[in-house]
Amino acid sequence: MEEEERYITLMHVKDYIFCPSTFYYKYILGIREPVTELMQDGIREFTKDSDRYEERKTLLARKRIRVDKMLFGVEVSSKKYMISGVVDTIYWSNNKLHVLEIKAAESRKLFPNHLYQTSIYALAVEDVFNQPVYKIAVFYKKSNTWFERRFTSQLRRYSINLVQRIHRALELREPPEPVMDKKCRSCFYRKFCHG
Ligand code: SF4
């Protein structure tokens, strides 16, 4: 396998956090879920968003964050963690590095999967920029809600462990034990798990 093929992306992280069985069906067996209208909306929203550098600047100004420098749509590729992808926004405030992810959705709480997706990107950002990330933030556009967390050593350790588990799942190619959860009800793969 080529080295780049062993890199994981945000989609791997997202699917693994949602459910290791979903991850297995998708990336080991190659069974893909048909694209729904909701997913298409997300893709359209992302495309629309991708040239919105000014929108990020305005958002940070509204949050009264003094930004020394900001990068938008940053392609990162970390050799150390074998993660690649496009990070929404990176900015420096008081010389401290921050990672921001913007979600099109509406939410009054920070979903753990969004926190961990962002923290895994923070690992890659630290590796690429050779500087520790100070804080990570998630902004939900529809509800105008902003959440931020310090990128603590505990969160860093948890994220490294998660990355290692995902790489291991890709190497071992073993089916995980399916769980019975309320998310199974609307899951495309339920016929394979609970059919
Ligand atoms: S049906 Fe449940 S256990 Fe199976 S992939 Fe979906 S969420 Fe995971």
Can you walk through the features of this model?
By secondary structure, this protein is an alpha+beta fold. It has one domain: Lambda Exonuclease, Chain A. It contains seven helices and five strands. It has helices spanning 10-18, 20-28, 37-49, 53-62, 112-129, 153-172, 190-194; strands spanning 69-78, 83-93, 96-103, 133-140, 145-150. A five-stranded mixed β-sheet has the order 1-2-3-4-5. A hairpin with a 4-residue loop joins strand 1 and strand 2. Helix 1 (10-18) crosses helix 2 (20-28) and helix 5 packs across helix 6 (153-172). It is globular. The two termini are 33 Å apart. The mean pLDDT is 90. Bound molecules: iron/sulfur cluster (SF4). Residues 19, 21-22, 178-179, 181, 183-184, 187, 189-190, 193-194 line the site of iron/sulfur cluster (SF4).
Q: What is the total tally of β strands?
A: 5
Q: Structural class given helices, strands, pairing?
A: alpha+beta
CATH class group: Alpha Beta
How would a crystallographer describe the biggest sheet? 5 strands, mixed
Strand order of the largest sheet: 1-2-3-4-5
Query: What is the count of helical runs?
Result: 7
Summarize this structure as a short list of keywords or feature phrases:
single chain, 195 residues, alpha+beta, Lambda Exonuclease, Chain A, five-stranded mixed sheet, 5 strands, 43% helix, 22% strand, globular, binds iron/sulfur cluster
Give the topology.
Blueprint: H1 10-18, H2 20-28, H3 37-49, H4 53-62, E1 69-78, E2 83-93, E3 96-103, H5 112-129, E4 133-140, E5 145-150, H6 153-172, H7 190-194
Parallel strand pairs: 3-4
Antiparallel strand pairs: 1-2, 2-3, 4-5
Helix pairs in contact: 1-2, 1-5, 5-6
The structure holds iron/sulfur cluster (SF4).
Iron/sulfur cluster binds next to helix 2 and helix 7.
